[in-house]
Amino acid sequence: MAKFPATPSYQGFHAPSRVEADITDLEIEGEVPKDINGAFYRVAPDPQLPPRLGDDIWFNGDGMISMFRFENGRIDFKQRRARTDKFVLEERAGHALFGAYRNPLTDDPSVEGRYRGTANTNVLTYGGQLLALKEDSPALAMDPLTLETKGYTDFQGQVKSPTFTAHPKIDPRTGDMCAFGYAAKGLLTRDMVYYELNEQGKLQREVWFEVPYYCMMHDFGVTEDYAVFHVIPIVSNWERLRAGLPHFGFDTTKEIYLGVLPRKGDARDIRWFRAPNCFASHVMNAFNEGTKVHIDVPMAKGNMFPFFSDVHGEPFDPQKSLSYMTRWTVDMDSRGEAFESMTRLTEVSGEFPRIDERYASAPYRYGFLLSQDFSRPLQLPGRSASGMMINTLARLDHATGTAQTWWSGTTSTIQEPCFIAKPGRSGEGEGYLVAVVNRLLESRSDFLIFDAERLADGPVATAKLELRLRGALHGNWTPAHQLPTAAQAAS
Fold first, then answer.
1. Closest of 462, 436, 419 to residue 66, by C-alpha
2. Taking the complete model, does pTM exceed 0.85, yes or no?
3. What is the Cα–Cα distance from 283 to 352, expressed in whole angstroms?
4. Are 293 and 223 in contact (CB under 8 A)?
5. Are 223 and 211 in contact (CB under 8 A)?
6. How do residues 237-292 score in pLDDT, each as one tens digit?
7. Cα–Cα dist 478/199, whole Å
8. If you compute the radius of gyration of the chain from its CA atoms, what whole number of angstroms results?
9. Contact 282, 351 (CB under 8 A)
10. What is the phi/psi pair of residue 486, to 5°?
């Protein structure tokens, strides 16, 4: 009989839902703009079975893919499991076979050498396929309409690394997908590989190199001319795994690095810049002005992940975990290794940054962020798995340094937003913002649609879900013209 642990990762709003669902024509408050036509996909960790070791971190749940399909003012909802190798093997066994997060030493011997990925971190369409991603394994291909799992893909044998980033970038000028793999020659190795593939799945570029030390390489930046890799000391080693410690820990004694690789160069052309210890995980955007390279990240003074504790045993510091959008600038023409500057862009604290993707890898003005407004506390327990109290959506204006915000109320929190461009409009930020909102008091979820330029006015439409969507990590929008037709999917 399944019994999940009575721990924060498995209780309350974080409790596993384990529900696959189809809901036709969601009930709507307000009016869904009829020019929104396409699909929004998001993915959440949602374990099918209790953890093998009795407890685990929230990040280790099996991927659950949700699709909100927009057409002519109507929204249909579909939710399916990402049927990874791990999921299928454990489904057959009837119990967990894989152990702690990214620690194969804790697995059942019967699954030695099998992919441990959960496909639970990001999901996007590319080249006619839906890709469900977790950075410790290959990309999992799924059908964009039915959400049926096809299996892991190595892009016709062209992607040699057993790992594939959860944060690929689509170059809006070329349409190419820029991606990388870390631990690319085995667990805990310093090896990395950078890829560019086109929409036909043909490999355009492959560059192998090493990072200064092994760490979680979760995200990166791409500009018109460069790929930019920020190396932050969320580190690991075999001693940690043998001791049964969490895979990663934060090391305050290590410097950070920024690796800048010319997209038309090779490993000999990469430059490594150094800066004092800090924390940064996600990237809002990156761009270059000639040889000056800018990357915008939510930067904190200290560790933001309480579940990956300090390697020296220091207690987690909530104040040092607060992150602020910060622009890091380096000059490829400089002679030294120092950053040119680290400039805070806003006084709004937050994470999960998003942009108008048409301006990806180029100079831009607007960004969107999940924020914490401590002046408006929750009446109910409702922090995210990271410990953040995400109760506010923010629209940042980098030109003025101002922010427009919307607060979700005293009994709700917000999941990562996504920008949808208005058809026929080319101005930056002209579009909609969508986000799942957690209704903590009712233990269910709503799906909200905002005018991205008038965020403070509140949602123009709310799609009601009579079920609870476990907290997602990331998601993306696909316009209708990029989705296959039903006939194409059947062929």
1. 436
2. yes
3. 8
4. yes
5. no
6. 999 999 999 999 999 999 999 999 999 999 999 999 999 999 999 999 999 999 99
7. 14
8. 21
9. yes
10. -60, -35
